[in-house]
Every structure is written in structure tokens, then in C-alpha cells.
Amino acid sequence: xxxxxxxxxxxxxxxxxxxxxxxxxxxxxxxxxxxxxxxxxxxxxxxxxxxxxxxxxxxxxxxxxxxxxxxxxxxxxxxxxxxxxxxxxxxxxxxxxxxxxxxxxxxxxxxxxxxxxxxxxxxxxxxxxxxxxxxxxxxxxxxxxxxxxxxxxxxxxxxxxxxxxxxxxxxxxxxxxxxxxxxxxxxxxxxxxxxxxxxxxxxxxxxxxxxxxxxxxxxxxxxxxxxxxxxxxxxxxxxxxxxxxxxxxxxxxxxxxxxxxxxxxxxxxxxxxxxxxxxxxxxxxxxxxxxxxxxxxxxxxxxxxxxxxxxxxxxxxxxxxxxxxxxxxxxxxxxxxxxxxxxxxxxxxxxxxxxxxxxxxxxxxxxxxxxxxxxxxxxxxxxxxxxxxxxxxxxxxxxxxxxxxxxxxxxxxxxxxxx
Length: 419
Hints:
The structure is a single chain. By secondary structure, the protein is of the alpha/beta class. 25% of the residues lie in helices and 17% in strands. The strands form 4 sheets. The protein has a 5-stranded parallel beta sheet, covered by helices on one side. It has a 5-stranded parallel beta sheet with strand order 8-15-9-10-11, covered by helices on one side. The chain has a 3-stranded antiparallel beta sheet with strand order 4-5-6, with no helix packed on it.
């Protein structure tokens, strides 16, 4: 990297917990961050699931360097053993951090990064590539513009790109046409979305903890509205493995939710449909009919697709990445996050070596670095940030980039996590 390039800012995409952590660490290391957030507030994605209680306690969810910065302004660390909701994490940590006078000047809200490239280099052009700075095409309140940066940290998350209901990995036939009656993720069933679900028949699709959250809220709502019907569709042949966390699980909120769903199943409060492979969704008489092979499920008014998320990689099309074809995570990270082998808390330590791409200075961090694997914890992301920022501009960064194209492929993702 030449002297002129080294004086440029480091671009951070996304102002969630990981993006803000990156800004803190960059400032500590003498870099100038520029943080782009597509939403109208820091943690905009987080706000969308603010009603959901996290599985990980406060001790896992605060970056130590950020806490030190906040405490200089009189901030008090929440009780480490408490489990925050998304809204509590936003209000008590993310918003104060984004508002801190050391961070706020570097934050640009309502600014969407459309693409990342190298200055005067498309993805095919090699000569002089590593000496050329990055260029980001961004769209904000004043229109579109290009921003030049010495490095790029993509911490934009995955919440904007949910997986489809269709069994083939693409939308089911009729899925897009029924979009007005389908919610992706975990809607606020007992809050802002209550009127959409009261007195309705609702099908929840998905075998992970996001589905569990939706199911428990629907059952609570059904206790107040006798006409409701709560259905649950999963790909598995049975739902006998709902309680899959050990009794001494370090994430006790996760186990509590599993036990609650098991109780509701035993009470007959949830109708279960197994071996569900959704091929088509059709409308009849104002209701949705879900077709799976030769079966058609009972008609429902609404569907909740708790089917996980995938990274949006389109903005990185003009830079050189090394991604596992199954998980869509960095190639050398993929075997370490295989959810067939690892759950929350058991993923091995990893950093610069596993997160590097053939493009020196480009990093995908946070939950987006896990691609479609759902075993991410915020404390893991903070460790990623520390490793990467410490190595920026060093020979280690370039060596890691050169080695980033070789790794073993993992098994596909099947389990879920949150936090």
C-alpha cells in the first residue's frame, strides 16, 4: 500500500454492533473510519427484531473496547448475566455508541453502498491492483457518489435477504404473488403486528429458534382469540428433537425457549406438518394453500417464513472474494462454522487468516461472514474485528490474502442460533 493510499479512510459497511465495533478499533489503531448505514439509525436491522430476546447475555454482546469508550462518557454496563432483547441492545448499547462524539462524526445514515471495486480496476484487471485503493459507489440523501478508501469492512449483515420458502432454494411457485401475506423473520406478533395475526390461521415454516419465537407468541395470542389456528411446518421427519441444548447450556435462554415449545407441542397447542417441501403457494377464497408434493396443507391466512437468511454478495461482484459454495462464507472459515459440528459457543477461534480474501484489505465480518450458517455470536464478531483491524496494512494481511483460496468445504448448514 503506498503512502497516499494509507492516508485514506477505512470504509465500514453497516452501523450495527459489529460495524460500530470496527469504528472503535479503527480509531484506536489510528485509522479514520467512514461508516455507511443504509437505515435511518444505527442498528436499523436490529430494530426490526427488537422484540426478540437474545440467547446470549450482555457479557457476550458488548465489545470491551467500545465499553471503555462509552464509560468515558459515564455509561454503565448492563448486568452481564441478563439476556437483552434486541431493543434493549439497541437502546442501551448501539445507540449510545453511535452517538458518542468519537464515533458520530464518522457515521453516514441513509446511505446505501451499491458496489465495491478497485479504483480504475474491474475484477479482471490485475496489474497494479493491490496498490490501487478501493472505490465504493454509495447512494445517499444527495444522490450517488464515489468514495475512495484504503480498506473495506463489510459488516452489513444478512437480515435484508431472507431465504425463500421454496424447497429448491428459489421462491416457491406463487410465493412472490403472495408476498402481502408472508412475513420473513420474526414479526412482532404481540406488538406492532398483533392485528395482522389476531383471529387468523397462521403457518410458521422453519425448524430453528426463530420459528420457536414466532410459535410461542402465536400461542399467547391464540389464548386471547379463540378462532386462531397455529400450524408449524418443518422439513424434518419429526419434531422430537426440539429440546436439543444440554441442561447446562451456557445460553440458557435458548434452552428455555426449546423447553417451552416442547410443552406447547405436548399440550396440542400447535399443529405440526413434517417432511414439508414447499413447491407452490396458491390463493383460494382469500386464503393461502401450501402444496408439498402430493399434499396440500389446510388453508391459512398468513405465513411466517422463519427460514433463515443469506448474505447479499452483489455489492462485492467487482472485487475478488474466496467464498465457500455451500455456506457462502470465506473459504477457510467455512469448516469451522459447520453447524453439523458446531453450535453457538463452540465455533473455534478465528481471525485474519480465516477471514481474508484474495483482495488484500477486503473483509466480510460479523454475521455476514457466516454466510448461510446460523451459529454466529456477537462476541465472535468482536474478536474478528480486533484481529482484522490490528493486521490492517501489515505484511500479515497480504500473506493471508495470498493464501485465502485454499480450504476444505464444510457440510451444509442445518441448525440455528441467535445472538
